[in-house]
Amino acid sequence: MSRLDTSPIPATDARGYVRRSVLLRMVPPGSYAGRPWVLLERSALVYRRSWLIIFSGFFEPLFYLLSFGSGLGKLVGGVHAPNGHPLTYAQYIAPALLASSAMNGAVADSTMNVFFKLKFAKLYDGMLASSLGVLDVALGEIGWAVSRGGLYSVGFVVVMLAMHLVLSPWALLLVPAALIVGFGFAAVGMAVTTYLRSWQDLQLVTLFTLPMFLFSGTFYGLSAYPLWLRFLVECLPLNHAVVLMRSLAVGDIHAGLLWHLAYFVGMAAIGLRITTRRLGTLLMT
Amino acid sequence: MIHAHALTKSFGGFTAVDAIDFAVARGESFGFLGPNGAGKSSTMRMIAAVSPVTAGTLRILGRDPAVDGPVIRSRLGVVPQQDNLDMELTVWENLYVYGRYFGIPRRALRPKIDELLDFAQLTERARDKVEPLSGGMKRRLTIARSLINDPEILLLDEPTTGLDPQARHVLWDRLYRLKHQGVTLVLTTHYMDEAEQLCDRLVVMDKGRIAAEGSPAELIARHASREVAELRFGVGQNEAMAARIADLAERSEVLADRVLLYVSDGEKAVRMVHERGLRPVSSLVRRASLEDVFLTLTGRSLVD
Amino acid sequence: MAAGDPSTAGEPSAAGEPPTAGDPPAGRSRTGLWVKTAPFVKPAGGGFRALLTYSVVADRRYLKVSLLSQLLAPIAYLLALGVGLGGVVNHNGGASNLGTGYLTFIAPALVAATAIQVGVGEATYPILHGGFKYQRTFFAMNATPLTSRQIAAWTVCWMTIKIAASATIYLVIVACFGGWRSIGALLCIPVATIGALALATPLAAYSATVRDEGSSFASIFRFVVTPMFLFSGTFYPISALPHWFRVLAWISPLWHATELSRWVALGPLRLSSDIGSLSPGLALVHLLCLVVPAVIGVRLTLWRFAVRLAE
């Protein structure tokens, strides 16, 4: 064993003091060590061996695009972008599928995997026994979910470009938009997961995401819905993402898009706050 | 190193730790001995700055855990009761990732990991996944992991529970070495042999309170006699027999399957029992142990 | 449908000899197929009635929760694509393309798809995790006088019952939305069930063989079930896809089940678009494409259960 370092505060100490920045003054003392990326490092190490799982998640939205894009066009007839520009059916569903793949990529990692790590592997207990804080854990895990969703999004945008499904150079903003969407979903996903108690409860997550995927204007417009249903769907997150992505893909840039982005930034902030508080309640009482 | 005064922990209406006082000096090996539910783990979690203190004061390395939690934790090593090793990573990666949690730079980690693997005798298994390792190996890995940040205090919660005897001895050996290198050990256990072997000083806890304090030898000398005679009279008879021989000893206890006589000369006591015409099915004379101390203090046995 | 009934004594029976469950399965089955079957062992104990009691009691709570939750996704697809997208399709004249409303067009296919989803779900995790690896229920059963053949046969039967039940419930739900136009739609239930078994029984044999599924179950869902669901003519006539997709469809049990389902549900209506009309010969071919894998799967399952339980 090496000679013990007996200095009062060793060089490799966690910065346990609250950082002076204004934003972080809101954070309770001791909950942020400033090292969320070490969790990303851990996840990267884990997935280095099972990259196939990550790789395969990319295919599902691609299958939907290929299947519905080629087969349903004739049956569905004319479809339009939010600004009225006519589109082929493939051009219509592609940005929406991008939105839902950002959602699914983010939710998968922030719910099932987090639940397992929290309740069974007790990994976060180990992390919090070190000098990490709950905010590090929350940011790290959400950050990984976003990275995974981001990977899928980049891949999907490449496919869209290759298949001539975008109509404007503004489409390059699809990737950062997908990251923000992913962050919102991952933060809320992880917050919800901290409240789940059993494996069966996890199905509640799918109970939310699958109907959103199917009913939020991905495959057909919302004009068919009665007014109350239309209002409800437009309040839910995925529809915001779908409209945002469609507008970007077509090049319809206007200030209204910022509202959609703000929606997801709000989701992220609320989700992060709840997650941090719940982790503290669950693991540090 | 650690000072606690009137330390209390309650969960809702239930008080797990009830205003206890203790102090741990640098370099000593300190133990919390007691049955399940005594409040040992709750106390350990407070010392580890993971659980907030409900009342009283607690100072670890001179700092208050409510304010300086992460700083304190960066100087502690924690070996939890149930291994929470990362099953998805290899042995080497477990140590690496844990070191990274502390913010230790990558370059500094590599030689440290090799050293720790050698200490835990796991060098050949460095590239293996954690899941197939035996219980003893996993526990050694957990201890190695807890040392990655060169802690001043090592907290061990029931370190050898669930291990076979050989694994326990290997673990004790490792802990001795650490002690000789100057690491302060704080451990909880309900095994009296572990407490006697490893601890310089002990605190006996029961139902959230401290029942006694001192070194193992002191406790035995103070609360139990020198020797104990164990007499078994057969099913259902122990109670009756005990009444007839209780006067032979300073103290006697009736357990479910035997009668204990606390005397200074066990052989003599057994002879006197026989002289009275009573025939125990079997008899045994042994030295007093911490189990007897606990029995005297609380009226119950350590392992229920 | 069920697998070889242990009560038939047609095989050269080992009656009178002690059960030889420890021996490796050997020899030819009585039908002469090259596939090995478990040696026939005279059964004792409670037999099928005991297994039925077990399944009903053990799965009672599970049936309500899990079966219904397995149906939620197909119901969502029904509403979103059948009713929602269907409204758009009908509005744009797609109905004349198809010869009938969109919902009526996809309903038979959705029943078949639901049955396959449930079948694959039942053939993977409950068998490997529940039966062999974690709860080890089959080993517990095997320690009683029940034989491995009975256990395997019953597992297939119970799986069939659950698939048929979910198909029936789904049929009823679709009926509530007006998805059926002829009484022939009731035949969708057996068609969907046999379609599901064509995939589920070989999978059950696979589940009984592997120690640790790794990521194979997830891969099966992701790379077999989902593409099959999307490219087998469920939501649009398969003629809309390029030629080689249609050739590929021949290996998809869902496509055969879909064609047959549409034949029984829409065939009698004689639609203008020719959807659902198959010549009896072609229908028989589709049926065989489902029955043959199902039967082979059953024999494989019996064999693999015997091997696994003999360890």
Defining key terms:
heterotrimer, B: 304 residues, alpha/beta, Rossmann fold, Alpha-Beta Plaits, 2 domains, 6-stranded mixed sheet, 4-stranded antiparallel sheet, 37% helix, C: 311 residues, mainly alpha, 11 helices, 66% helix, disordered N terminus
Can you give a write-up of this model?
- The complex is a heterotrimer of chains A (285), B (304) and C (311).
- In chain A, helix 3 runs antiparallel to helix 5 (89-120), helix 5 runs parallel beside helix 8 (174-193) and helix 7 packs antiparallel against helix 8.
- Chain A has one domain.
- Chain A has helices spanning 37-49, 51-56, 59-71, 73-76, 89-120, 123-129, 134-162, 174-193, 199-215, 227-235, 237-250, 256-283, and strands spanning 79-80, 86-87.
- With 285 residues, chain A is mostly helical.
- By secondary structure, chain B is of the alpha/beta class.
- Chain B folds into 2 domains: 2-220, P-loop containing nucleotide triphosphate hydrolases (Rossmann fold), CATH 3.40.50; 225-287, UreE, C-terminal domain (Alpha-Beta Plaits, 2-Layer Sandwich).
- Chain B is 37% helix and 26% strand.
- Chain B has helices spanning 40-47, 65-74, 91-101, 106-119, 135-146, 165-180, 192-198, 216-223, 238-245, 266-275, 290-298, and strands at 2-11, 14-24, 29-33, 55-60, 76-79, 153-157, 184-189, 201-206, 209-214, 227-232, 251-254, 259-263, 282-287.
- Chain C has 311 residues and is mainly α.
- Chain C has helices at residues 47-58, 60-91, 94-98, 102-133, 137-142, 148-176, 188-209, 216-231, 243-248, 253-266, 280-309.
- Chains in contact: A-B, A-C.
In short:
The complex is a heterotrimer of chains A (285), B (304) and C (311). By secondary structure, chain A is mostly helical. Chain A has helices at 37-49, 51-56, 59-71, 73-76, 89-120, 123-129, 134-162, 174-193, 199-215, 227-235, 237-250, 256-283, and strands at 79-80, 86-87.
Oligomer: heterotrimer
Q: What characteristic shape of chain C results from the CA principal axes?
A: elongated
- Approximately how much helix is present in the residues of chain A? 55-70%
- Name the helicity range of chain C: 55-70%
Major interchain interface with per-chain residue totals = A-B, 37 and 45 residues
N-to-C CA distance of chain C: 29 Å
The total count of helices of chain A amounts to 12
What is the end-to-end distance of chain A? 34 Å
Uncertain stretches of 5 or more adjacent residues of chain A: 1-22
Percentage of β-strand residues of chain A: under 5%
Number of strands of chain A: 2
Mean of the pLDDT scores of chain C?
83
Count the strands of chain C?
0
The secondary structure category of chain C is mainly alpha
Low-confidence stretches of chain C: 1-36
